[in-house]
Amino acid sequence: MKKNTVENEKRLNEIRKEMAALGPVLFGDMSAKTQSYTKVDGTVSRQKAQSLFRFAKTGGKMTRRIPAEAEKAVKAMIANGKKYTALREEHERILTALALEGALKKTPARAIPADGEPVGGGQRRSSKSS
Fold first, then answer.
1. With CB atoms 3.0 to 4.6 Å apart as the test, which of 18, 51, 94, 99 could cross-link to 66 if both were Cys?
2. SS3 letters across 61-72
3. From CA 95, how far away is CA 87, in angstroms rounded?
4. Angle formed by the axes of helices 71-103 and 2-21, to 10°?
5. What is the pLDDT along the chain (130 residues), one digit of tens a residue?
6. Cα distance from N-terminal residue to C-terminal residue, the chain
7. How far apart are CA 104 and CA 111, in angstroms?
């Protein structure tokens, strides 16, 4: 178990470094929007595709038009966002495993977190009913 803990802590440090090295991130996706219009002679034409960035979370929705010259940078930030999300999920899994490992130890002193809060229900209940 101790070897696993050391490996997990090493991986947590690696994940933190990878997250810091990503640079700017965006969470969302790109789409293209085209509109058609009718000319005076009756023919229907389409406008050049406009790129849109879309983002929707619990806090709200956002849609922004992206200029053609900025598309490459925005796509790179979206890719960084996907990497960040994957790293964050792995980070959460490792932290959960480490927390459980500490909480399941037989020696409760090692299971007490750094902030001093007690872990688990170590209080005795009285048999008297009030």
1. 51
2. EEEEEECHHHHH
3. 12
4. 160
5. 455 888 888 999 999 999 999 999 999 999 888 888 898 998 998 888 889 999 888 888 888 999 989 999 999 999 999 999 999 999 999 988 888 877 666 655 555 555 555 555 555 555 555 4
6. 44
7. 8
